[in-house]
Amino acid sequence: MPVDDRSRPVSYSWDVTTQSDPDAFDGYHQSMRDIYDVEGVDPDARAGFVSRTMGSVFDNGSIARGYSVPQTLRRTAGTVRASGLDAINVFVLFAPLVGDADGADIRSSAGSIHFRDLSRPSVSRAEAIDLVTLMIPRIAAPLWMRDGGIHGLAISPDNPMGRLLASHLCLLADTASGLRHDEGAAAVEAALLIAERAVGRHSTATPEQLSAIHATVRHRATRFMRQRLLDPQVTVQDIAAASGVSRTTLFRAFAPGGLRRYMLDLRLDGARAALGGRDPRRQTVAEVAYRHGFASAAHFARLYRERFGHAPGEMAARRLETRALAETPRGPFRHDMVVNWLRGRTTLGARAPRVLRSA
């Protein structure tokens, strides 16, 4: 039966330790047999064994975030024959990995992207299993991944496209369970397109792939802009470099509203938060305007009113009222958590709290 493109993917997660299950390592070892033989786990690591994984499966790939103890992962010719798996594995490594990929020496640093062809033997020693992994069935892989040349290939963290790919895969792993099948499939295709360009090959992107890539570019750019929001020396070229793309791609990612408009909105959002916060210094509107890079209070007030529909002075007045109310007991009613969450959702990249609990 075909998968409904509008449906959610199959998602899974576990958090198993020897504290919760004395046979945790044996279960992990058995479950990994078709992918890798697990070796080299010392007695202390077995006694304190942990395996944490969260993943989702789409039609053209499986994405997961995983963590476990130091170990050696071996895939022999016998494992290749017995497993029946024929896929390409792409890792974002957060811990170093060394080994051998069918005769090719492997030395991948933390932050690098590593490729593994599961139809060929390999052995790797990881100082920690700390990674994001994308598994692509060979039938769904592009031709450049199927020619056998990528087995053991690593993309350095110094490679800008490699950094973009790492961010894209991490973002996909974080959000996969909430995507529809068509959205997830497009994000997987976009990852393969970024990987292709990172290894020096090029092809034409589909609109869906471009949309997924641009979402990752916006995510990276926004994180950098928030870190340097009040730095007057930051340039568009700085943002492009931090995002791992050209100025042209950066501008396209923020179309149609525009990058400069988005930066302005971030500054206005920061100013609004300052005016409505509980800062005991009680900054004036002019002080907030200056601190957030506006040339004058009048200029700030005009832009603020255009964005939020009221004068900044009204927000400052509400701050004083909020502080007075905060001094009285609130009991179990914590609507402020929802209000703060809703405010946070006005900027790209904000995430909802997993659980809302009363005080």
Overview of this structure, please?
This protein is of the alpha+beta class and 359 residues long. Helix content is 43%, strand content 20%. The model is unreliable at 324-331, 333-339 and 341-359 (pLDDT under 50). The radius of gyration is 24 Å and the shape is elongated. It is built from 14 helices and twelve strands. The longest helix is centred in the middle third of the chain and has 21 residues, at 207-227.
Summary of the model, kept short:
This protein is 43% helix and 20% strand. By secondary structure, the protein is α+β, with helices and mostly antiparallel strands.
Topology of helices and strands:
Elements: E1 10-17, H1 24-31, E2 37-39, H2 43-47, E3 50-58, E4 61-68, E5 71-75, H3 77-83, E6 87-93, E7 97-101, E8 104-108, E9 113-117, E10 122-126, E11 129-137, H4 143-146, E12 154-155, H5 160-175, H6 181-198, H7 207-227, H8 236-243, H9 247-253, H10 259-276, H11 285-291, H12 297-308, H13 312-326, H14 335-344
Antiparallel strand pairs: 1-3, 2-5, 3-4, 4-11, 5-10, 6-9, 6-11, 7-8, 7-10, 9-12
Helix pairs in contact: 5-6, 5-7, 6-7, 7-8, 7-9
Shape: elongated
Helix content: 40-55%
Task: Give unreliable regions as ranges.
Answer: 324-331, 333-339, 341-359
Structural class: alpha+beta
Strand order within the widest beta sheet: 1-3-4-11-6-9-12
